Amino acid sequence: MEVVIWMACTVAALTFFLFIRKKRCLEDLHVKLNDSFRDVDLFMKKRVEVHAKWAEKVAAYDLDAQGILAEMTALRDRFDYMPIEEKVRLCEKLDKLSGQMIASAERCPRLRTSASYIRLRAQAENLIAEMPNACCAYNTQANQLNEALRRFPANITAGVAGFEQKELFSHPEKKSAEV
Questions:
Q1: Listed residue (74, 49, 75, 70) closest to 59, CA to CA
Q2: Residue 96 and which of 17, 53, 114, 155 are 20 to 30 A apart at CA?
Q3: C-alpha to C-alpha distances, 154 to 19, 51, 67, 150, nearest whole angstrom
Q4: Is the pTM higher than 0.85?
């Protein structure tokens, strides 16, 4: 009977040790992911600021664009409080609003030829072009974490410890192969 208890305790101890080891590994990956997101966060904040200024300019010329301005203002005001997952999806929202602002400018020749509109649109397009470079490290770290979460026994540890898979930025795919 003592042998069975000894074996059960040994198995329990080994299982606990494996759980702790995998949990620490997942925590390390999560910390690296958050570190890589800090750079992206600064980039995204700049992008939101430029889009907000761009929306102000568009709304000044086109009263139908007041909704775009209200949306951009709300995004700018909430940005610092958004979770990472919402910021990842924010790129798609900014692209949609960019399209609406460009369409608004097409309807308003004075806006389209305004020097400040042209400058703000160019800044926004430059930030969009830089997006893949800014998000590549985050996507690499998120892929590593997601892959680790899919493997046994980390998948069990993740379920118990509350780790979840992370979304990727959709734009950076074209340059993420360079990393």
A1: 70
A2: 114
A3: 8, 41, 46, 7
A4: no
